[in-house]
Amino acid sequence: MSEKLSRASNHLTFLRTLERWKPAEIVFWVALVAVQFVFPTSLVFASQILITGLFALSLDMLLGYAGIVTLGHAAFFGIGAYTAGLLAAHGWQDPLLGLVVAGAAAGIAGYLSSFLLSRGGDLTRLMITLGIGLLLFEVANSAASITGGVDGLQGVAVGKLLGLFAFDLYGKTAYAYVLVVSFLLFAFVRSMMHSPYGLALRSMRENQVRALAVGIPINAVLTNIYTLAAVIAGIAGALLTQTTQFVGIDVLSFQRSADLLVMLIIGGTATLYGGFVGAAAFMMVQDRLSNLNPQYWQFFLGVLLIVMTLYLRGGLLGGLGRLAALCKRRRDKERS
Amino acid sequence: MNPILQTRDLWKAFGGLIVTKNVNLSLARGARHALIGPNGAGKTTLINQLTGVLRPSSGQVFLDGEDITRIPPNARVHRGLSRTFQINTLFPRLTPLEAVTNSILVRERKGLNIIKRRVFGVSRRVNHVDEAYHLLEQLNLAKDCLVETHTLAYGKQRLLEMALALAAKPKVLLLDEPAAGVPEGESDELFAVLNSLPKEISILLIEHDMNLVFNFADRITVLVNGEELVTGTPTEIAEDPRVREVYLGKGH
Ligand SMILES: Nc1ncnc2c1ncn2[C@@H]1O[C@H](COP(=O)(O)OP(=O)(O)OP(=O)(O)O)[C@@H](O)[C@H]1O
Ligand SMILES: [Mg+2]
Question: Which of A28, A134, A164, B64 is spaced 20 to 30 Å from B136 by Cα?
Answer without folding.
Answer: B64
